[in-house]
Amino acid sequence: MKPVWAERSVVSIAPSEVQAWGSGLDRSISLVLHAYAVLSQSLDVAVGDRALKVNPARGVRLSLKSKT
């Protein structure tokens, strides 16, 4: 997560960016899902802290490809 999101303010993250990021990861499906879960949970904390009204990762549909 760090290379993409480290310098970003949580309020600047759009659902389309989360989708493009997760769908573009060249890793195993389980690793992509884990990375997505960590990002989504981090954004849930921002919602709980009232830094965000909604979590931009919620409802995102990832295009998962099996890595061969």
Main sheet attributes: strand count, strand direction, barrel closure = none
Q: N-to-C SSE series?
A: HHH
Rg, please? 12 Å
Low-pLDDT runs: none
Shape: elongated
What is the terminal-to-terminal distance? 22 Å
Q: Please indicate the percent range of residues in DSSP E strands (runs of 2 or more).
A: under 5%
Task: Annotate the secondary structure layout.
Elements: H1 2-5, H2 15-24, H3 29-48
Short note summarizing the structure:
This protein has 68 residues and is mostly helical. It contains 3 helices and no strands. The model has no long low-confidence stretch (mean pLDDT 91).
Structure in words:
The protein has helices spanning 2-5, 15-24, 29-48. It is an all-alpha fold and 68 residues long. The two termini are 22 Å apart.
List keywords for this structure.
68 residues, mainly alpha, 3 helices
